[in-house]
Design a protein that fits this description.
alpha/beta; Rossmann fold; 2 domains; 7-stranded parallel beta sheet; 6-stranded parallel beta sheet; 16 helices
Length: about 375
């Protein structure tokens, strides 16, 4: 571990670049207050998936904005690392905080390491064991570079220990998504108003999201997933990710959208309202697996693997594109009230909503504050 006492006191650089990172680091930024210096990579460069969330989550405007969106993975990591390295050289923070497993996360970790600045990884220790996932490489590399690994669960801590990461570099904090949802989940009246505007009935529809490369970039998988969504026993509301929309056009699959309720990407609060009032969800998102355990709605996870085993068999079922989607959906639909009642009293495995506070306390211990 670096000698952090050798660095002058100063601000904490919080490096982020995507919607999930903004959501999951908002609470930490608020607790840090004026100490937080937000550096935004622009990895999500559409307003609906990036800057709008700073406003929605009441996070201060970035002190520095990079422009790496739209580049391929290697380009994003390389350009972001170079620009962050230069920024840290001229505006040295006391520590750098990164979150999760994005290209921005790895770039922030590499730049902090190059400048010998203490690195904090929030949401450390997640493992899918799937080397085909770029995110797996990002998170593993970041964990091994980090001076402090903030692990959401004991499962994540065990993963880090198995990789010979020193116990003193690890703290179990819970997941910061819990407090984000607790703060932003609209109350029942607001949720009902949204459903009224969308002509939906509570527990009478499915909320779906599809955007991961293994689904969106594979024409056979994308076709299969859309066909399965069309055949489900409830109307399907699909906020269409820009990546998925482009691939639907590319592969000529537009007709498969006609029997779905396709809507523009939603803000975080409206999406949470939609999720909380749904019958269930179908998604390839990592974050929705966590969110399902807070809004108490089950999710069919359409992926080859998951780095969040804590929810499998309770709030989530993992399937590959194909008939298993419809099979699980039919079983859930046959006993939906009982399923909802069972999940309503099941605690989230991701903590009690104190993760951001625990992360900040661990950062202060690291820095000797």
């Amino acid at each position: 571990m670096r000698d952090v006492a050798a660095h002058e006191p100063g601000s904490i650089a919080v490096v982020l670049g995507t919607r999930p990172e903004i959501i999951k680091l908002a609470g930490l930024c608020r607790i840090l207050g004026p100490r937080a210096r937000v550096v935004y990579s622009g990895q999500h460069y559409d307003d609906e998936l990036g800057p709008a969330f700073f406003r929605e989550l009441d996070v201060s405007a970035p002190a520095e904005v990079l422009t790496v969106g739209g580049k391929p993975r290697g380009g994003q990591i390389g350009v972001a690392t170079e620009r962050l390295d230069a920024y840290f050289a001229g505006n040295r923070p006391q520590a750098v905080v990164v979150q999760g497993d994005t290209n921005t996360t790895l770039a922030g970790a590499l730049a902090a390491n190059a400048q010998e600045i203490p690195l904090v990884h929030v949401e450390a220790g997640l493992r899918s064991r799937d080397r085909a996932m770029p995110e797996e490489h990002n998170r593993v590399l970041t964990d091994h570079l980090a001076d402090l690994c903030c692990a959401p669960t004991e499962v994540n801590r065990a993963n880090l220990l198995d990789e010979q990461i020193a116990p003193e570099r690890i703290v179990v904090t819970g997941n910061t998504v819990v407090e984000a949802l607790q703060a932003l989940l609209p109350p029942p009246a607001e949720r009902r108003a949204l459903l009224d505007r969308m002509a939906l009935e509570p527990a009478g529809y499915i909320a779906a999201t599809i955007h991961r490369p293994e689904n969106a970039d594979d024409p056979d998988n994308l076709r299969t997933v859309l066909e399965e969504l069309v055949a489900l026993p409830y109307p399907v509301v699909l906020p269409l990710h820009p990546r998925t929309a482009a691939q639907v056009r590319r592969y000529g699959l537009q007709t498969l959208l006609t029997d779905l309720r396709v809507v523009e990407p939603l803000g975080y609060r409206p999406f949470l309202a939609l999720a909380a009032e749904s019958a269930f969800l179908v998604s390839d998102s990592g974050g929705i697996q966590e969110e399902s355990s807070v809004v108490k709605r089950p999710v069919i996870v359409v992926r080859n693997s998951t780095e969040r085993p804590e929810v499998l068999g309770t709030f989530a079922e993992l399937v590959q594109p194909g008939p298993a989607i419809g099979k699980i959906a039919a079983a859930w639909a046959a006993d939906l009230p009982a399923l909802h009642a069972r999940l309503a009293v099941m605690p989230s495995p991701y903590g009690d909503g104190s993760a951001s506070r625990r992360c900040v306390e661990a950062i202060d211990r690291l820095l000797g504050v």
